Fold this sequence. Notes:
The protein is mainly α.
Amino acid sequence: MDAILDSIAGLGDFAIYFGISIVLLFIFKLAYAAVTPHDEWKLVKDDHNTAAAIGFGGAILGFSIALGGAASNSASLIDFGVWGVVALVAQILAFLLLRFTFMPKIAERIDNQEISAGVMLASMSIAVGVLNAACMTY
Length: 138
């Protein structure tokens, strides 16, 4: 019985960190939607746009990877929250960088269901998430 109790001793901390992660993920979805010129949810749900699903899915994965890095390296809940916001800002900046420098027509291409644009957006988002998480290992 002691082994079971020892195993779940951190359950409360897990629940708090997980709950904050879900809230940050929702905030990321709102922030990401605010900076993109198209409504990803509508494109995916109503228009069945595969390019949008790939791009938005990659953005969520990239942010989740960075958020995981923040959770595993944070010293406290406040530290986690701060680095979670840093991860969010970095992911948003990655989209803006891609949109305004490397692929200025990325939004139009995703609207036109160009799979290659969705893959590039997802790849950039995941790459930034991995780098973001790695840089949080201080």
